[in-house]
């Protein structure tokens, strides 16, 4: 393999991660859907991208550190559930201007600085996935009416960007970058 795979996200605090992982566990037990466990609960800001192994990792990590400095922490509200039929169910994230502009600015930064292009940034739909890919259409149609009616509410302040790296099996937290308006 000549490259490593990364993505950039906001990762909620551990107590919210635990609650989201319980929901993922429900999908694993009830519907044999476990692919969502391949990464910690997160809100993707930059979709997975390849970073050539011969390219200096410090270029990426120092760049992201610089990007995060001067950025405000972001208030995040998780409310209820949403879906991308026919096989994705997620915890919905309220679309607040600060979050939307952080994602847009990051996409522009990644494209101009590193040539990493994510055409999906214009259609950014922030969410935390609880079931996907291996959730069958039948299971989706059984589960979605239940989750469509469920309520959920968590709030937190996103204080850092997280760079996740794929280890060949799962996505692991590689490094965190504090959002800070002070240098």
UniProtKB/TrEMBL annotation:
<dbReference type="InterPro" id="IPR009097">
    <property type="entry name" value="Cyclic_Pdiesterase"/>
</dbReference>
<protein>
    <submittedName>
        <fullName>2'-5' RNA ligase family protein</fullName>
    </submittedName>
</protein>
<keyword id="KW-0436">Ligase</keyword>
<dbReference type="InterPro" id="IPR050580">
    <property type="entry name" value="2H_phosphoesterase_YjcG-like"/>
</dbReference>
<dbReference type="Pfam" id="PF13563">
    <property type="entry name" value="2_5_RNA_ligase2"/>
</dbReference>
<dbReference type="GO" id="GO:0016874">
    <property type="term" value="F:ligase activity"/>
</dbReference>
């Amino acid at each position: 393999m000549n490259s490593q795979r990364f993505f950039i996200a906001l990762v909620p605090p551990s107590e919210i991660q635990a609650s989201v992982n319980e929901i993922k566990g429900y999908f694993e037990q009830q519907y044999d859907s476990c692919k969502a466990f391949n990464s910690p609960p997160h809100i993707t800001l930059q979709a997975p991208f390849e970073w050539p192994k011969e390219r200096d990792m410090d270029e990426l990590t120092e760049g992201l550190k610089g990007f995060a400095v001067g950025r405000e922490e972001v208030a995040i509200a998780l409310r209820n559930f949403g879906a991308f039929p026919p096989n994705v169910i997620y915890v919905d994230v309220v679309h607040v201007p600060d979050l939307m502009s952080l994602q847009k600015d990051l996409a522009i930064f990644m494209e101009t600085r590193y040539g990493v292009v994510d055409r999906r940034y214009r259609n950014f739909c922030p969410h935390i996935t609880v079931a996907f890919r291996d959730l069958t259409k039948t299971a989706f149609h059984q589960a979605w009416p239940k989750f469509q009616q469920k309520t959920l509410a968590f709030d937190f302040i996103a204080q850092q960007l997280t760079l996740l790296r794929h280890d060949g099996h799962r996505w692991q937290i590689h490094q965190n970058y504090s959002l800070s308006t002070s240098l």
